[in-house]
Amino acid sequence: MWDESQNITRKRFLKTSLAIAGVGLGGFSSFVSSRGKNIPAIGLCGSWESSAMAQQAGCSYIEEGVAKILMPTKSDSEFRKQFELLSSTQPLKVRSFIVFIPGEMPLVGDHANHEEVIKYAAIAFQRAQLIGATTIVLGSGRARKIPDGFEKAKAKEQFVSICALMASLAAKSNLTIAVEQLNQSETNFINTLQEAAEIVEAVQHPNLKMMCDIYHALRENDAASEIIKYKQHLVHCHIAEKNERTPPGTKGDDFTPYFKALKKINYSGGISLECRWSNLEAEIVKAVAVVKEQYANA
Q: Which domain holds residue 260?
């Protein structure tokens, strides 16, 4: 269980960690868009240590894992070391986060412990704000998986309840939670954009929105028109090719229908490459180029 004495406050952290690190928040809080021909900023879901490589390939930000970077179960001093590294060594900043709630913290079912989840999320949100992130993706397929024999309607009620609590916390840190639809091979709950939208509409909080993972949409045959239907909720996107989650340009997948829909709604969020890389350095340049070309021509 998390020790409340380890909880971090913005005021205390600014007086200690930032003084030690010798940096301010300005460098982290801005989202640098690389728009050409109205192309959204492209990011890399991957290690922040690959920041320089991603920047050279045309990316504008990094999307990292909550546990790795924000370390919600670790002390302030341990996180401070992480913060110093992030603030001083890499050209791209961590704008958003994935892999939010660990599978060992179930969000639904008989063993759901929302008090534990809220403690974990509160620390993650505070630290994400200090880093300058704007979005935390709520995928967490294992944590939200409905246990065998558990009623789906009850699971949905539980999920809506915890999302409402987390949205209120996220608002205090100027963060947006983006509910992610995942294909059925990864979880049995919230597999389509419609189902993600139903959660957002049930919670009705400005800091709980949704994202479109184009890879999962392709796997579930989720029509691009759903992007238009739920445009008011959409704040973020992921992308990879359909069959093996390969980077764009590997097998030649056409993302044009989804890009046309994003253009139609004047989408202003980012598109993050969340792929299975065989050789990141060799593949990322082509992946970024393919996304930009297809988007420009959509």
A: 4-297
